[in-house]
Design a protein that fits this description.
heterodimer, A: alpha/beta, Neutral Protease, domain 2, two-stranded antiparallel ribbon, B: four-stranded antiparallel sheet, 2 helices, 4 strands, binds zinc ion
Chain lengths: ~400, ~90
């Protein structure tokens, strides 16, 4: 039902992020005030409550809440399990609870990140969303999982990497805020696949060599001729089926898809950076979340912005590897070679610096570090527009 | 009347597409299609930034195309889209 999402179309996620990350008390109060105004106009009282509580920034530890949407599109639904309460008889509830817990633990133990916003945001999930809904989503505030149609798809909580994938969309929203179209969108998808598979590897104690590098293994029913939704090891080989077609992912820039569907092929072209990560992780060997994962985490949380493209990501991972492990270190060398293997040459540091300088000129684009104030201005314009 | 719906995106990123022509439907179905399309066309499609893993729909009614996202889909458009996607190509 659209009403439960409408706040996201008024307040873009990056504003939410900016407020949460950089806002002082006044800014937060102002944001809350704007939310009240726009929500009041639209009668979005429930949405308001959810957003206001997110902005209130409770300092937290792991806090999970699972709701049952009871086959409706009304969110969040009926509360069925909260932190520390006993297991449900409903497998989907327990999978969402355990999976979001595993994801929380993964980011906390490895990268000292406290939840999606790094401030202990409560992890809300709704299961049994819609009727035969064959999808899972992070909707800007919470995870939602469909039961699948039973014909092609099983329930979406069945794979731990899917849960990690969805929660990572939340982390991206609060950090790089990569726009969800074209190359920045494919990177958004890519980081979700990377940390989705790493949550699985970490939880099951699998080394890079032992991992299947598959996203959504177990999601398809037996009717489908396919092993998973995506393969990071061999993009384009996950399925080949008479009903759903063939896995369209490229593994090289030569086969970059120029489709307009899927917001410019964000789930298609993610195959290219996905393969880069696989190459780095298997080259370095051992626990992929320790070195390769660390480089990608540094890149997502500190080096990319809303409109970063593949080239920017290549340069950023290379710089991140150099910063943490040293210039020309084995990790940095692995990063350089992996991007080269998919057709992207990492730019020399001098070129990267020159490109940054160009962006910093106050002409058309606003550097992200200075974006807080304009972002607030956009929000109040939207609120005004909504009142008319 | 000819209505084409393409759904793309979603976690799996698997597109699905249906093309329905009222000329090849029986009278009752043709009337249903025209009513659903008419109802949808009375409602403006809100533009919102695409959200992760939300479906994207490209809907064309007699050659006139619109793009919309699952996250801001008015119920009139949802009814039309669901009806068309549930149909076999005609
Ligand atoms: Zn995704």
């Amino acid at each position: 039902m659209p009403h439960s999402h409408i706040c996201c179309s008024i307040i873009p996620p990056h504003i939410f992020r900016n407020i949460a990350e950089h806002g002082d008390d006044d800014e937060r109060a102002q944001a809350r005030h704007m939310l009240e105004e726009s929500a009041e106009v639209r009668g979005e009282r429930r949405a308001l409550g959810l957003m206001a509580s997110a902005i209130a920034l409770p300092a937290g530890e792991k806090r999970r809440t699972i709701f049952d949407a009871q086959s409706t599109r009304d969110l969040p639904g009926k509360l069925v399990r909260s932190e520390g309460s006993k297991a449900s008889r409903d497998a989907a509830v327990n999978e969402a609870y355990d999976g979001s817990g595993a994801t929380y633990d993964f980011f906390k133990k490895n990268y000292a990140r406290n939840s999606i916003d790094d401030k202990g945001l409560r992890l809300d999930s709704s299961v049994h969303y819609g009727v035969k809904f064959s999808n899972a989503q992070w909707n800007g505030r919470q995870m939602l999982y469909g039961d699948g149609d039973g014909k092609l798809f099983n329930r979406f909580t069945a794979a731990l990497d899917i849960i990690g994938h969805e929660l990572t969309h939340g982390i991206t929203q609060y950090t790089a805020a990569l726009e969800y179209h074209d190359q920045s969108g494919a990177l958004n998808e890519h980081f979700s696949d990377v940390f989705g598979i790493l949550v699985k590897q970490y939880t099951r104690k699998l080394t890079a060599a032992k991992s299947d590098w598959l996203i959504g293994a177990g999601l398809f029913t037996k009717e489908v001729h396919g092993i998973a939704v995506r393969s990071m090891k061999a993009p384009g080989t996950a399925y080949d089926d008479k009903v759903i077609g063939k896995d369209p992912q490229p593994a090289h820039m030569q086969n970059y898809s120029k489709t307009t569907g899927d917001n410019g092929g964000v789930h298609v072209n993610s195959g290219i950076p996905n393969h880069v990560f696989y190459l780095v992780a298997t080259k370095l060997g051992g626990k992929a979340w320790e070195v390769a994962g660390r480089i990608w985490y540094d890149t997502l949380t500190r080096r990319l912005t809303r409109t970063s493209n593949f080239q920017a990501c290549a340069d950023a991972t290379h710089a991140a590897a150099g910063e943490r492990y040293g210039k020309n270190s084995a990790p940095q060398q692995a990063v350089l070679e992996a991007w080269k293997a998919v057709g992207i040459d990492v730019a020399a540091p001098a070129v990267v610096a020159a490109a940054r300088l160009k962006i910093a000129k106050p002409t058309f684009s606003i550097p992200s570090a200075a974006a807080e104030v304009p972002a607030m201005a956009i929000a109040s314009t939207s609120a005004r527009r909504a009142r008319r | 009347m000819r209505v084409m719906v393409e759904r793309s995106g979603g976690f799996a990123g698997i597109a699905s597409r249906r093309d329905v022509d009222s000329a090849s439907l029986d009278a009752l179905e043709a009337a249903t299609l025209e009513r659903l399309a008419h109802d949808a066309l009375t409602v403006a499609v809100p533009q919102s930034p695409p959200m992760p893993d939300a479906y994207r729909y490209d809907v064309s009614i007699d050659g006139n195309s619109r793009t919309m996202s699952e996250t801001s889909l008015p119920s009139e458009w949802r009814s039309l889209i669901e009806w068309v996607l549930a149909r076999a190509d005609s």
